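User: Please predict the structure of the protein below. I'd like the answer in structure-token form so I can feed it into my own downstream comparison script.

Assistant: Understood. Taking the following sequence of 219 residues as input:
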Amino acid sequence: MYYKAFVFRWLIIDESDRLFEVVEGQERCFRSQLAAVYKACDGKFTRRAFFSATFSYEVEEWCKENLNNVAMVCIGERNSANANVKQELVFAGSEQGKLLAVRTLLQTQFDPPALIFVQRDHIVESFRNGRLWVLICTELMGRGLDLRNVNLVINFDLPTSIISYIHRIGRTGRAGRKGRAITYFTEADTKYLRSIATVIHQAGFQVPEYTLSLKPLSR
């Protein structure tokens, strides 16, 4: 069944900032497709709305260039972490150290259900290069799913952006509930550490003091 775009009463874009993260080329990138969809839904009575738990400056610039008479509604502090989630930043020394830390946690302080996030860029590279033939992966768990009663989120691998961190820990502490998020890091994570530590600190939780004075990641 086909509909003419101008008859739509609403155009709703959820997780809108996600559409700006992956660029496949000027003609195929998500933002170009989004601009085409937006311009097609140009009915006189069509209302357009963009929603996301985070709002990057890149998205803000796009909205200024492509949208008319924009009104922004921000609930809470922009791009801030949920203060209902007890957040911990733990130095584990090495990859093996992270494994030991997780095992200890599961044996002593485990409060299920829990999610463990990993980020394995070198696995993806191996897949691209043909050294790995089968890759099982998902980014689905980081956004969009309302998983009830998740008590614990473990960032086994440090997120590479504030937005990714906020969405990951947002799997717990939902709808006013309390939650806990533990983020492990090693010396290899220094590049992204300050931004994550700052978000945790601003939410009112302690982090190693030196992590707040590391060299900031340039935009």
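That's the full token string. DSSP finds six helices and six strands in the chain.
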